[in-house]
Give the backbone structure.
Amino acid sequence: MRRVRVHPLPTAALPEAEVMLVVDVIRATSTAVMFLESGVKALWLTAGLEEARALRQNGELLAGEVGGLKPPGFDFGNSPREVALAELWDRTVIHATTNGTKAAHKAAQVAREVLLASLLNAPAAAQQAARLGSEVAILCAGKEGQMGMDDLYTAGVLAQMLLAEGFEPVGDGTQVALHLAQKPARPLLEASEAALALAREGLGEDVAFCAQLGLSERVPRLLQRRGEALIFG
Amino acid sequence: MRRVRVHPLPTAALPEAEVMLVVDVIRATSTAVMFLESGVKALWLTAGLEEARALRQNGELLAGEVGGLKPPGFDFGNSPREVALAELWDRTVIHATTNGTKAAHKAAQVAREVLLASLLNAPAAAQQAARLGSEVAILCAGKEGQMGMDDLYTAGVLAQMLLAEGFEPVGDGTQVALHLAQKPARPLLEASEAALALAREGLGEDVAFCAQLGLSERVPRLLQRRGEALIFG
């Protein structure tokens, strides 16, 4: 039996899964997808800006945000639109993101395979998850311990796609996400707290970008761990 | 401004609220409402069966469950249907319930007023909450740290009623609950994990009972605390 379970939040006691899709749709995992789409060969996820700076050795690019904007000395903010316009063939990016990295670390503790998912790569991410295992979990990053409607919606869209591949839904979080996924993406995402915070910074266009379904076939996959950094490619 | 916020789970860091509605709809808070409806003057919520036994001094009735069923030496299980048939005028009930009591304790730490809510008393509970304060929170008990679709649905129904009283919804949890509340009660509740577990014990009729909207005007309100017990009336 193939099963999919949505976790609305990265709680302390996550059950094991073969494959875990990590979702931080506004904006970390959307931006991560666009980094790979732009030619990046390795994406290092770190939790803090100082950690990212300390990891840079030769030629790595730094991405991150403070209050939605690019920090001093960084090459990129956390904007998938900005990344989409860049040519980054064969480069390495060190990407500082608080909630997304925290969730990815939780996933790495309990899953054999960890993938980063967003609406941009949802069809490809669901297909790859289905290829990699029969027990798939979808982990919503949320925001500082609070559930994010944007992440839960995206989890519902991914779960829907796995159902179409013959997976069975397990648990109440999965059912709630599936109900939410019946709504259209853009208004749902735009009503989330994460989107409202970005709109206040004048970054509302990023939300519209993140709401696009299936723009990319690239699915960041956890390859290794170096200290506190998780390396995706 | 009057505001309502839904908390999908009793997490560690709950913000303060003037009034908190605690929801454990299958079955603790539904049963609690029926105890008051049946004439009970004081309802003591405790976390464990042993605690409940230890609190009994003279004539109090014991309610609780082990795997859905009435424990040895107890007067009632945790069944609202069973309680609805009883005549309990002026009696005191000591009600052992794990998730519901845990959530009520969390609520008591951050709120001035704590009320127990279910679908059975939803219209009365929303009205009383609106009378008691302008910052209302709805706390879903969930099950052993997992979100319950049954509780989130009920929270959405309560939030809808508060919106009709002029309250503004705050936060993503509230929006998700409001989306869920657009569905009909009975199939939604019956699809929840809590309901499926009861159905396996042959107690599916209790879920149908809990799905009835507005059967009672009684709203259990926290009056005082005695040791680890919370006394509602």
